[in-house]
Amino acid sequence: MTPLVIDTDPGVDDAYAIVLAARHAHADLRAVTAVFGNVDLPTTTANARRLLGMLGRGDVPLGLGAERPLIHPVSRRAADVHGDDGLGGVAERFGPLGPEPAGRALDVIADVLETSPEPVVLAAIGPLTDVALLLATRPDLAERIGRLVVMGGSIGIGGNVSAGAEFNVWSDPEAARRVLVEERVPTTLVPLDLTHAVTVDRGWLETLAASGPVGEALAATRTVYGRGEALGVDRVPIHDAVALLEAIEPGTLATVPLEVEVDTSLGPARGMVLADRRGRTSPGRTVEVALPEGTDLDGVRDALARCLRDDMVTRPGG
Description:
Domain Inosine/uridine-preferring nucleoside hydrolase: 4-292
Distance between the termini: 17 Å
CATH class: Alpha Beta
Number of strands: 12
CATH topology: Inosine-uridine Nucleoside N-ribohydrolase, Chain A
Protein name: Nucleoside hydrolase
Strand order of the largest sheet: 4-3-2-1-5-6-7-12-10-11
Structural class: alpha/beta
CATH architecture: Alpha-Beta Complex
Pfam family, one: IU_nuc_hydro
Strand content: 15-25%
Keywords: Glycosidase, Hydrolase
GO molecular function, one term: hydrolase activity
Largest sheet: 10 strands, mixed
């Protein structure tokens, strides 16, 4: 079993990721923490509560995270992609509401790390503000994080919020730089390069919808979400679920160690992740970057379907 904490900004693809983690046979979901991002903090928190309630996972503590970036205020949300409610305009299909937040995100995560007999995997699938604050204020807990899995960045295909920046990193580049460049926690970065290669089509979503109420609710988000992602084909990416699969099943995605930098300027490149792919031996810190080359893309889609479909659930509370 993989002991797991998720820091998230639900968000449609975050909803897929939470369902995956709550249902995966090898995931021991210890906590979920909500951060600002796709929508504001009250909405991401409510959405996390809806998902935990719908999944029957009231046993999972929920933490209340950062409501804004470390330094500069956020200039836009992602309602055009995720809907005003964060769940593709169909938030009412998810629920009932799970328990109220158990406390601040930093305290909830710290409690899991301090009490776990083994290192914990921390999956960060929203802006990295909470993770940066945790590592800055509790550096003693860094060694209790077995691995940090981050959904964010774009290495070579362009961004989804600007010409070069991916939304999660762009939302708080200063936090992202601290986590990806300055810290030393073992980290796997799952960028758009990989998640845009693992899109799902109408047939995949129709099969998911037919599997039961949770699958139906997830698939119903596609009307707004698919239009907002605008990839030019009748397919949608579920970025965060791909990252969660790697968090739970290490080695699912093919990775290469790369030294990265995050642009924190206030110019057009703000939020870009720059990866050095020249193959040089570098004394700097490297992170494992997941790329399509070497990854079984169809195998990832199949694994996601097995974990997300209601008719495949074997765990209690699913």
